Amino acid sequence: MLKLKLKQASLVELFIVAVFSALLIANAWGTFFASEDVIMPIVISVLIAMAFIFFIRIILQRDASENLRSALFKISEAASSTLDLRGLFRLIHEVVAEIVPDKRIFIALYDETKKTVEISDFVDTCRPDEELSVEQLIDQVIRSGDRVVIYRQKTKEKVVQRPDQTNISAAEHLAIPLRSPDGEMLGALVVQADAHGKVISEAQMEMLNIISNQVAVAIHRKQTEFLLKNLNAELERRIDERSAEVADLYDNAPCGYHSLDKDGVFVQINRTELDWLGYEREELLGKVRFRSLLSPQSAQVFDQLFAVVQKRGYGQPVEYEVVRKDGSCFPVLVNATARMDEAGQFLHSRATVFDITERKKQEKRQSRQRQTLEKLALGASRREILDSIIRYLSEEIPDAVCSILIVDAEKRQLMLGAHSRLPTGI
Fold first, then answer.
1. 288 with 280: CB under 8 angstroms?
2. Is 414 within 8 Å of 405 (Cβ atoms)?
3. What residues contact residue 426 under an 8 Å CB cut-off, 6+ apart?
4. pLDDT for 8-30, tens place per residue?
5. Neighbours of 42 (CB within 10 A)
6. CA nearest 219: which of 207, 227, 208, 209?
7. What is the pLDDT of residues 72-112, one digit of tens each?
8. Cα angle value 70/73/75 (rounded, 5°)
9. pTM, 2 dp
10. Which terminal Cβ of the chain has fewer Cβ within 10 Å, N or C?
11. How would you classify the pairing of strands 173-179 and 414-419?
């Protein structure tokens, strides 16, 4: 405090102190040496006093520069060490309070999108004066982009207000605009003297002007970090949603998907194919070859075609007979391609698997119908035609008892009959 007050003293004040000190030194010189020549002692004394005061001013200016550098460094560090704007504002308040002690300090943030101003209080004892229209002051700073200084002058205990600030209270205060490095208006740094406090000095204003630039950089950095954090969180949320959608599409597709390594071992398989096979994912991945789930004849076909896929990168759709975990079989149609590395080496296959059980049944049904029609066309006996129809119905309805009976015109005599579970000669 003492150093700051001494630094704020004007040259005239220091010169008066120097002259007064010189007179004291000259008087002491004449008394001690009992000399009648007092001119030379006065001159020497004045020079010594002025040199001493000049030296003190240099020291104080250096200390002030160090204090300013320290304040700028603290604000810069606060931008990195604090977690949010609230923490940053609190540290800024502490730094500014060292420059302008016993003053009220707060920051007003301007939202360009919403066209609103938010005033952040730092501690309970540092609130804007209730009689002061802070909103008008901040509004003027943001609209003009210039520093606003309100002076307090008293005449017969009455406050003399500036014409352009008729609604501003008597307390002197300073509002400095805060701009981002690219010129965007961020808000204002406001310093207000207490009702009975001393005014803000010119030296303090100069330091606050310099510090406000660093404050703006720190706020802009923290706001940018907060924005990037929110953007990253939103991006991660969207990625998670999209990943979940893709995973669901892969896992619950109406067809099976699987990937095999160079040895034909499962490295990936979807839920649909697992349900068809009756296995769990951990039972197959990295443990079981696909060919081990095929019938012997299908396994031989797979060995030939999988080698082609590894070499050429793709293969033709092929039908296999797959054996479920419970031992039952069902037909599938597999179409596979290969994923290669940059050197053209095989990494793993990518295959789609379709359950063609229903298609096979339809093909067999059409084949039976075609055979029956061919027998009719070739003039086959009734017995052969009836037997063909019974076999077809028995395959379509395995648990049903199928029979066909033909009687004479008068419905008295059984002329011909066929039954899947009776002798055909009845």
1. no
2. yes
3. 414, 417, 419
4. 444 555 555 555 665 555 555 55
5. 18
6. 227
7. 888 888 888 888 888 888 888 888 888 777 777 878 888 87
8. 110
9. 0.52
10. N
11. unpaired
